[in-house]
Amino acid sequence: AALTVRFLTRRFIGEYGDMEFIYSHNLTVDGREILFHIWDVPSSQQAEEGSSEEKRIQWADCFVLVYSICDRASFNILPLKIQFIKAAKEGQSQEKVPIIIVGNKRDLHHQRVVSSEEGRLLALSLDCGFYEVSAAE
């Protein structure tokens, strides 16, 4: 949620509830107006199985999966999530689904438990993009 709000408002808010939101946002990219719809799902709700998770995957055109560099568990669930997304999306067509892995909390490097190299290697092995950021900065 912090990363989404930072993208939409350019402000950082550190604490969020455990709620799911859909945001809409217009942005000009290369002279073209782009309308984003962002379905922000807290990590506690990402573990859901079944129709709710499937609905989110079918709704989306691309995926940004965010983990905390300070939380190994949030990183470890990524391969399973990505396999689930690819099976649901790419099984219907031959097009590659755009997926980006984002390691957040780069500013908390002193609490880091997932290295940048681990993130890059995971993204490379799963054919995903990769970035490390700090929503706070």
Fill in the keyword field for this structure.
single chain; 137 residues; alpha/beta; 3-stranded parallel beta sheet; two-stranded antiparallel sheet; 5 strands; Small_GTPase
What is the molecular shape?
globular
Low-confidence segments, given as residue ranges, are: none
Helix share bin: 25-40%
How far is the first residue's CA from the last residue's CA? 15 Å
The structure class reads alpha/beta
Number of H/I helices: 6
Q: Tell me the β content.
A: 15-25%
Family: Belongs to the small GTPase superfamily. Ras family.
Catalytic activity: GTP + H2O = GDP + phosphate + H(+)
Enzyme class: hydrolase
EC number: 3.6.5.2
Report on the structure:
There is one protein chain. The protein is an alpha/beta fold and 137 residues long. It has one domain (1-132). The chain is built from six helices and five strands, in the order αββααβααβαβ. A three-stranded parallel beta sheet has the order 3-4-5. A two-stranded antiparallel sheet has the order 1-2. A hairpin with a 2-residue loop joins strand 1 and strand 2. The radius of gyration is 15 Å and the shape is globular. InterPro entries: P-loop_NTPase (IPR027417), Ras-related_GTPase (IPR051065), Small_GTPase (IPR001806). Its EC number is 3.6.5.2. GO terms for molecular function: G protein activity; GTP binding. It catalyses: GTP + H2O = GDP + phosphate + H(+).
